[in-house]
Amino acid sequence: MGQLAFWTSLVSFVVILIAVPAKAPTHQNAKFVFANFVNNTGWSQNGIGKTLPCFISTGKNIDNLVAFIVGLINTNWAFACLDCATHLSEEIAHPERMIPVAILGTVAIGFITSWTYSVALFFSMNNVDDLVGTSTGVPILALFQQAMGSKGGAIALEALIMVTGIGCQISCHTWQSRLAWSFARDGGIPFSSFFSHVDRQVNVPIRAHFMSCVIVTIVGCLYLGSYTAFNR
User: Fold this and answer.
1) Closest of 121, 129, 122, 148 to residue 24, by C-alpha
2) What's the rounded Cα separation, in Å, for the pair 46 and 62?
3) What gap in Å lies between CA 67 and CA 60, rounded to an integer?
């Protein structure tokens, strides 16, 4: 399953990387992609810059800097599961070698693919305001529609992202079940003897898996009940 998810993500990356720039009716110039800064975060030009000492910076520059730093949260989310390999160390052959390879390989592949992916999409977008104010609430879907010229093409590319996300979800549930199981094994959670059980038929800590799934589901309901939480 892990191999399937890996190759699905790479195939999705290649398809989108080729299809979007190839079908886009117009393309932005290099100055727009690499030198233009669009701040739609709500940090005004006279916001936080006024609260800092004048020898640091004031006004628009510092507000854009803060917006950029806050925007790195999205990048952090993409690498949030970087430690997942460590939680599977007891199931990996030669973990002292393979785990560092997995972590560094993830960083390398993630940087190369995300950089080329982002640059390709920036060159292919037509109207930034339409993306920010899209009625779908999903700017990437609006960008796909701008580039492909049809809703069907946009939905097809978005489906590739969703399928990739499902593979990532399976991986997340795998390592979080091992994390919950290790806490239970060491007596770190209530009912440890129950949740530390490993099913002998599938050789998986199913009880710990379901326990972690229930907790994640409950916490996830917060996103459904609050628009603000959903966008954080």
Assistant:
1) 148
2) 9
3) 10
- H-type alpha helices, 60-205: 60-78, 95-124, 128-132, 139-148, 151-185, 192-195
Q: Which region holds residue 53: left if phi is over 0, alpha if psi is between -120 and 50, else beta?
A: beta
Structure tokens at 85: 């390999």
Q: What is the pTM of this model?
A: 0.74
Q: Please tell me whether residue 126 adopts helix, strand or coil conformation.
A: coil
pLDDT digits (tens, 9 = 90+) for 53-91: 443 444 456 777 777 777 787 777 777 777 778 888 888
161-165: which pairs have CB atoms within 8 A and are 24 or more residues apart? Answer: 161/12, 161/16, 163/8, 163/12, 164/5, 164/8, 164/9, 164/12
Q: Which amino acid is at 174?
A: T
